[in-house]
Design a protein that fits this description.
The complex is a heterodimer. By secondary structure, chain A is mainly α. Chain A contains 13 helices and two strands. The radius of gyration of chain A is 29 Å and the shape is flat. In chain B, the strands form four sheets. Chain B has a six-stranded mixed sheet, sandwiched between helices. Chain B has a five-stranded antiparallel sheet with strand order 13-12-11-14-20. Classes of the chains: A mainly alpha, B alpha+beta.
């Protein structure tokens, strides 16, 4: 392989090329060598992902082709996509999906809105505001188990602070819709009292993170922009809508996408506050449904199908968010 | 005509809901606004006495904890005046501007804009516009939306708004950039957008906080000229903060020099240059700076002189008398580089240290006996002395500055 340098030396100097010490010949070009190194460095991560993510994913997909026999020890039946069809069209799955979506629709926007509210409140040059910041972000240091115990105790019909307003059945066992609407179509989309209680717990637990994210976003909005808007005649409300919120939009979008993914994967507080899918399965979110199929029904084929469904729904939702929400985000700085 | 329109500006400030905005750009001759403000006979009657666009700061102090940013600062900016607040960084000039704008509250003192005291008026209702050093353009809005924002917040009707935006854009040459976002503009263009946003609603006063300092040197010279032109066109009251004395000297009707939160001197640029009120101003204004040498007062040739290292400089009669009448023992002698000449018969002995040639002129940097440096400004067509040669210097006696070494105040009348 002759390099351009060789050619120049050979042609221009008039001397035999051999007289000039030629550069060490390499088998591959610089670009190929760099790419090779890149792939080599990626390899460990790829291996870890393969073992813990890719293989289980495809194995899970494959598992969904087999129906689990009613009694342990019997051979599994290959049923192909039939099991997918059956499970995904079952009313049990659709109900669970509905509960999951309702749960996300409550927790994500409310969590973000409260996070913004607290962040704006704490973004003042006041004495002692640091104490409030510490309070507002404290739930980050609280595990979901602790949050569940706190709210479980608060809502307990025996010892809870809210026992005065407890009805029969008690809050966490109440499958009635939180708002009593007689129209059956709308009624089926109103969350149960129990689901609302779990959602409130979740919002409280996520509030710290939401507050920190929004505070960080606010820090990135230059004070001068707020001042310019003030001099331009904008009151606090106009400034918030026209300056703060647009500049916070990348943070809000991030919180929305990540928050939605987290909401679809909620498990801990559901299991701790409303075991076995809650009253009349009104808190039976998808992750809990999967767990239930695996743990209690021992139906790993069905659980595998549900897991794939959860993946598909989450992916779809994220794509939709990027498609429709990201347009409203302004990244300019 | 002039004060008539001016009154309409004040009128808007007083009645926020009014759709008319500020005063027209040109107050005489052709009216580019097509006669926007319509005044009642009563308003016209009062208009003649109005003092508009005036900004007065009286006894303003600002303390941040233990730090005093402004100390008993009093200054009056006349209507249509271009006043420059000049000083080194941290001298309090930006604080003063922010207090006028309403972004900071003074610890003490009062602020007046137009004919009302505005201490308790919020920034958004003070009817001033501000141009920030960083321009502070709204990054998510197009140029058009940036410029019309101050009109929108004041609920100016759409048709009126479009016309005003178009007019401001044409004045600043932004017509082709209206649909772009700030990120797609150069520094100079952003600066013009910031100016357009300021002028679009014709406020009572413009506040400018180092608006040129983010531009490169060439663009700064160009924009400086454009600003002066714009100012002539707007005939507006401008308070302009800078640390750049060239900007201050070339643009301002008057310069107010601040140091450590204390007003040092206010005056026309030539005044401040020729008659600095104290040593700080003397050293701060002028480039290269004024030569200052401290020395004891002594008798010399029947008059009063100052003993500086290696020489005695005789003071002219009146100046000597002034020094004597204050019975000063020690003074600081100041002389600008252009007032020092190489003169074999001169009283000051020095050694040439370095010669800096700038093309159009030359700076001869000399050392006194004790190592203090003196700078002599020389025309390029005069032959330079040799480096390290012993020379003698003469100072123009009429342009000597004498300061009390203790109080640092000017002694000359």
């Amino acid at each position: 392989m002759s390099t351009p340098v060789d050619a120049m030396v050979g042609a221009g100097s008039g001397e035999p090329a051999a007289a000039v010490p030629s550069p060490r010949r390499r088998r591959f070009s610089r670009g190929v060598r760099e790419a090779g190194l890149g792939y080599l460095l990626l390899l460990p991560a790829f291996l870890i992902f393969s073992v813990f993510i890719f293989y289980p994913f495809f194995r899970n997909f494959y598992l969904g082709f087999f129906s689990t026999p009613p009694f342990p020890g019997q051979p599994k039946n290959y049923v192909g996509l039939d099991q997918y069809k059956d499970v995904l069209t079952s009313s049990e799955f659709l109900d669970s999906l509905k509960v999951t979506v309702i749960f996300a629709v409550i927790t994500v926007p409310v969590g973000i809105a409260l996070g913004i509210l607290l962040a704006v409140l704490a973004h003042q040059k006041l004495k002692g505001v640091g104490i409030y910041r510490a309070f507002f972000s404290s739930t980050v240091a609280t595990s979901i188990a602790v949050a569940s115990v706190i709210f479980g105790t608060l809502l307990s019909p025996q010892v809870g602070l809210l026992q005065g307003i407890q009805t029969e059945p008690s809050i966490l066992q109440n499958p009635d819709p939180i708002i009593n609407i007689s129209l059956p179509v709308i009624r089926s989309f109103i969350p149960s009292v129990a689901l609302t209680a779990v959602a409130v717990t979740t919002i409280w637990q996520n509030l710290g993170l939401s507050f920190i994210l929004m505070s960080a976003g606010l820090q990135a909005v230059p004070d001068e922009l707020q001042e310019a808007a003030e001099i331009d005649g904008a009151g606090p409300w106009t400034r918030f809508w026209n300056v703060t919120l647009p500049l916070l939009s990348p943070t809000i979008f991030f919180a929305f996408v990540v928050g939605s993914i987290f909401a679809f994967q909620t498990f801990g507080q559901i299991d701790l506050l409303t075991p076995r899918g809650g009253p009349l399965k009104t808190t039976n979110v998808l992750t809990y449904y999967i767990y239930d199929q695996l743990q209690f029904s021992k139906n790993d084929g069905k659980a595998a199908v549900l897991a794939i469904a959860l993946f598909g729904v989450t992916l779809l939702l994220t794509l939709i968010q990027f498609q429709f929400l990201e347009r409203r985000v302004s990244y300019e700085r | 005509m002039r004060s008539l329109n001016a009154n309409s500006g004040r009128q808007v400030a007083a009645t926020r809901c009014s759709a008319t905005v500020g005063r027209p750009f040109a107050r005489s001759g052709s009216d580019p606004l097509g006669g926007v403000p319509i005044l009642t006979a009563d308003q016209q009657g009062r208009a003649d006495e109005e003092i508009v666009g005036r900004v007065a700061i009286r006894g303003v102090s600002k303390r941040f904890g233990d730090v005093t940013a402004l100390d008993d600062f009093t200054l009056e900016v006349a209507d249509e005046e271009f006043l420059v607040l000049l000083g080194p960084s941290g001298c309090g000039k930006s604080t003063a501007l922010r207090i006028i704008a309403g972004l900071e509250e003074p610890t003490e003192g009062t602020i007046e804009i137009g004919d009302r005291q505005v201490n308790d008026v919020e920034a958004k209702d003070r009817d001033v516009a501000m141009v920030f050093q960083s321009y502070a353009l709204y990054p998510h809005m197009t140029v058009r939306r940036n410029v019309e924002f101050p009109l929108k917040t004041r609920r100016v009707p759409t048709a009126e708004r479009n016309r005003l935006v178009q007019e401001a854009a044409s004045i600043l040459g932004l017509e082709d950039l209206l649909e772009r976002k700030p990120a797609q503009l150069s520094g100079g263009q952003r600066q013009r957008v910031a100016l357009a946003r300021a002028i679009v609603r014709r406020p009572q006063a413009f506040l400018m906080d180092e608006p040129l300092s983010n531009l490169d040197a060439k663009l700064r010279v160009q924009t400086r000229a454009e600003l002066v032109e714009l100012r002539r066109r707007l005939r507006a009251t401008i308070v302009y903060v800078t640390h750049d004395q060239v900007e201050a000297m070339t643009m301002g009707d008057r310069i107010a020099i601040l140091d450590h939160g204390v007003l040092q001197q206010v005056g026309a640029s030539q005044d401040v240059y020729a008659r600095p009120a104290n040593l700080f101003v003397a050293r701060f204004i002028g480039n290269p700076p004024m030569n200052t040498v401290t020395g004891d007062v002594t008798r010399a040739g029947g008059g009063i002189g100052v003993q500086i290292p290696g020489s005695v400089v005789e003071l002219p009669g009146a100046l000597g008398a002034a020094v004597q009448s204050r019975s000063l023992k020690r003074v600081v002698l100041g002389v600008r580089p252009e007032d020092l000449t190489l003169d074999d018969g001169g009283p000051i002995k020095a050694t040439v240290s370095v010669i800096e040639s700038l093309g159009h002129e030359r700076h001869v940097i000399c050392r006194l006996e004790d190592g203090q440096l003196l700078i002599v400004r020389q025309a390029a067509n005069v032959s330079p002395p040799a480096e390290e040669s012993e020379i003698r210097l003469a100072a123009d006696a009429a342009r000597l500055h004498v300061f009390d070494a203790e109080s640092e105040e000017r002694v000359n009348a």
